Amino acid sequence: GYIREGASSDILPTIHDSMHIDLRGRVQNTKLPARHSLLPLFEAVVNSVHAVKATAAGTGTIRICIHRQLTLNLNDASARLPEITDFTVEDDGVGFTQVNYDSFDTMDSRAKADIGGKGVGRLLWLKAFASVDISSVYEEDGRWFRRNFEFRLTPAGVEQHSLQELSRSAVTPRTKVKFSDFHKEFRDASPKSDSAIARKIVEHCLQYYLLDAMPAVTLHDPDGDVAGINLADNYRDELKP
């Protein structure tokens, strides 16, 4: 805004501290071909890799869960796999500290520019899913916090944001990102089986496996093996040779 000389103070425009971002427009203009329907999931997994590598120990675990539609043919081995509706990605990395949250809340953030981050991956989240719910328990400056918020296609983008300080007793770092309501266009084009999805994740993260820099990752599917798929085994058995 600006002040015109002689203007009455009661009609002066409001001066805003930052540029407005049309999130709906940004998402609409973001390209995501249906054949790359799992790219939002890959982005979340790579974020978890970075979060784990940023811990003091530099090690940790990532757990990916597939959620499917409930069906009446759970005991019918010949039935098609139920449609995927949601994904969850959990890790025990550094979490959504204030710096990391501010980076998330800044479009085109350059916080991860030195490791190839372009600050637009979360736009893909809202391209393929209706909403993303995030819960993060983390330590910062010797204190523990729980941050919860929703990421949705609204003018603000971030909704229902809360921050709570926790006591030190029985608290462990844990960040959970849940992607809900997989849009049909991308759901139909996505691999359906847990084994196919596991291989796609390994292929996307191949550089980390080649450099022996990938945390322990497991993929869990209600219609798959109870123990889940260890992605390191997948890499060792199928891709490393």
What would you say this structure looks like, in words?
The structure is a single chain. The chain is an alpha+beta fold and 241 residues long. Helix content is 28%, strand content 26%. It is built from 8 helices and 8 strands; from the N terminus they run ααββααββββαααββα. It has helices at 23-29, 39-53, 98-104, 121-128, 184-189, 194-204, 206-210, 231-239; strands at residues 61-68, 84-91, 129-140, 143-152, 158-166, 174-182, 216-220, 229-230. Strands 5-4-3-6-2-1-7-8 form an 8-stranded mixed beta sheet. β4 (143-152) and β5 form a beta hairpin. It is globular. It starts with 22 loop residues before the first helix and ends with a helix. Residues 1-19 have low confidence and may be disordered.
Q: What tags apply to this protein structure?
A:
single chain; 241 residues; alpha+beta; eight-stranded mixed sheet; 8 strands; 26% strand; globular; disordered N terminus
Widest beta sheet: strand line-up = 5-4-3-6-2-1-7-8
Number of helices: 8
The radius of gyration is 21 Å
The major beta sheet can be summarized as:
8 strands, mixed
Contiguous runs where pLDDT drops below 50 for at least 5 residues: 1-19
Multimeric state: single chain
* Number of beta-strand segments: 8
Tell me the β content.
Answer: 25-35%
N-end to C-end Cα span: 62 Å
> How would you describe the shape?
globular
Helix content: 25-40%
Give, in order, the helices and strands.
HHEEHHEEEEHHHEEH
Structural class: alpha+beta
Mean pLDDT: 86
